[in-house]
Amino acid sequence: MTDEQLLRYSRHILLTEIGIEGQERISGSHALVVGAGGLGSPVALYLGSAGVGHITIVDHDTVDLTNLQRQIVHTMAHIGQPKAQSAQTAIGAINPEVQVTPIVARADAALLDTLVAQADVVLDCCDNFATRQIINAACVKHRKPLVSGAAIRFDGQICVYDSREANSPCYACIFAPDTSLEETLCATMGVFAPLVGIIGSMQAAEALKLLSGAGRTLAGRLLMLDGRSMEFTEIRIARQTTCPVCGVTG
């Protein structure tokens, strides 16, 4: 670690739970971020500023004026640009040491099968149920830890699904793939701007804990936030032996 790196990451290094060894693990790791919107914005900024060595960002969309109310990784100057590339620029302005790979494409099963296999941690920052299921299936297949977040209106949730642990559930254990859900999009339902910042920052924290080995993750615990009262509710969740995704692989 260079003198400049020791200075840049000094506040992490001072933490007994991280130290130089933990920071080196962070710097040598690869994070896959699916979605560069409201959740992906704080995720990208915090993973980049923390020095995650390689960050791959997948998003097919472009920056729009309506995004800027909450998607803090983007600016007026980036309107019309692909979100993945806009996020790459923002991370580079904070920490040019980080390698960022922007992928301007929809996160389908074939793409995720390749990208998840290459990552050390996966962060689900997307906004639709079908993609969440595809991300989860790839993470179970390749035994990669998944940090999943969601936010709509004033309601947020976050959980870690770590298929490396025998008793850890996967996303499909809670939200079955064959469930008929009505998509709730912020374009029609609205979203409280700081809510995505809170949940996205928590996702970044869980990812950094997984990469560094610090603390206890949210594996097996679904944490829900009511932004109106700023109250958290925690639900313990277990792996389902009948799960069509992780049950048949265990």
Structure description:
This protein has one domain: Rossmann fold (3-Layer(aba) Sandwich). The protein contains ten helices and eight strands. A hairpin with a 2-residue loop joins strand 5 and strand 6 (155-161). It has 250 residues and is α/β, with parallel strands linked by helices. It starts with a helix and ends in a 14-residue tail after the last strand. The protein has helices at 3-8, 10-13, 19-27, 40-49, 83-94, 109-118, 129-142, 171-174, 186-189, 193-212, and strands spanning 30-34, 54-58, 99-103, 121-124, 146-152, 155-161, 221-226, 231-236. Helix 4 (40-49) crosses helix 10 and helix 6 (109-118) crosses helix 7 (129-142). The longest helix is centred in the last third of the chain and has 20 residues, at 193-212.
Short description:
Helix 4 runs parallel beside helix 5 and helix 6 (109-118) crosses helix 7. The protein has helices spanning 3-8, 10-13, 19-27, 40-49, 83-94, 109-118, 129-142, 171-174, 186-189, 193-212; strands spanning 30-34, 54-58, 99-103, 121-124, 146-152, 155-161, 221-226, 231-236.
Which labels suit this protein?
250 residues; alpha/beta; Rossmann fold; eight-stranded mixed beta sheet; 10 helices; 8 strands; 37% helix; globular
